[in-house]
């Protein structure tokens, strides 16, 4: 029987090496990182979901949190570069992160500091806040497999960089990365705190390549949030209660990819600038024709209610299509591919060259195969009316591990 990771003891020296503390870290006594992780003691490194935490989602599940979890108000998304080339270090980082993520999702301090002679273990900015529905989702990309030759046989063939799409103007500063951490919460500081602490503990092993904060605002009483063009965004999505549909659209099923990815999914992320200045000069009817939906109700053009059935062939009394052929929804619906969208708006100051808002959509979708994203994006191609108002500036694709069983750790099956 293979030894479980938590049954192995990582030596104090390798722990210090791994956390990048090195010689300076000698000051960090047994209550330092050793205290955080308890990896150097006999105590197994298992953190439990705390049922008495307030506003908390469970970590241990068949699937990772933050995918079919109801969308929170904030995201901090980070794409990391790995600074190592071996599978063992990746395994150690994932082992280190797993109990930390449980603590973060419990809304607990990672480990309360008791030693005044060392830096606090938890950076502390979430002290006194509850879990705020924090979720952390981790994925790995094709470039990670390129950097770790030992894992070559584990790379799913569909895990490749996304192709170049017509009209893409990708900025390398917002593109790619080896590992993603998607932290979502109903509080911006809780989401940021999660990423900050996960990156910090793996310092010397990973560094942030790019990161983006985002937000969603929900109407009183709930409902679909509006994007920065004021349209309800996220109406047409698989129902998170329809398990069979999620198996068809989102979750990798046994035999569909490499075994380690069963119950996992693919995360496509696009940092899409929305040209607010151009949009704000556009006539209201033209805005509605761009999406093919009414702005205020969110209903398909010609219908009354947001969740009315979309019929892209429906015509008005003059025989004209109600939803223009080049409208965003028409083109998305035309292809059979589907996805689960979980996007956030962002506003990050202004573009240095033009002074325009650097604002838009941190588009995130989950699908069991990257081709689903590719087919829909190709359907938009050069035709989508929305192209006039947006520019894709960043892009990455990650395979998100399946969920974790108590006693295991993120991505364990990758190392078997
Ligand atoms: C490749 C996938 C998609 C990208 C990229 C994308 C960008 C993008 N979308 C909006 C706003 C809306 N999108 C809407 C619907 C919609 N969009 C996609 C896919 C991508 N969008 C799909 C699959 C759908 C659903 C189509 C359907 O079957 O009905 C809508 C309508 C409301 C809704 O259903 O959410 C809006 C609004 C923006 C602003 C944007 C880039 C900045
Ligand atoms: Fe869309």
Automatic annotation (TrEMBL):
Its cofactor is heme b. SUPFAM superfamilies: Dimeric alpha+beta barrel (SSF54909). One of its GO terms (cellular component) is cell envelope. PROSITE patterns: DYP_PEROXIDASE, TAT. It is found in: Cell envelope. It is an enzyme of class 1 (oxidoreductase). Its EC number is 1.11.1.-. GO terms for biological process: iron import into cell. Binds 1 heme b (iron(II)-protoporphyrin IX) group non-covalently per subunit. Involved in the recovery of exogenous heme iron. Extracts iron from heme while preserving the protoporphyrin ring intact. It catalyses: heme b + 2 H(+) = protoporphyrin IX + Fe(2+). One of its GO terms (molecular function) is heme binding. This is Deferrochelatase. Residues 64-216 form the Dyp-type peroxidase N-terminal domain. Residues 224-404 form the Dyp-type peroxidase C-terminal domain. The chain crosses the membrane at residues 21-40. It comes from the Bacteria. Keywords: Heme, Iron, Lyase, Membrane, Metal-binding, Oxidoreductase, Peroxidase, Signal, Transmembrane, Transmembrane helix. Belongs to the DyP-type peroxidase family. Its main location: other. NCBIfam families: Dyp_perox_fam, tat_substr_1.
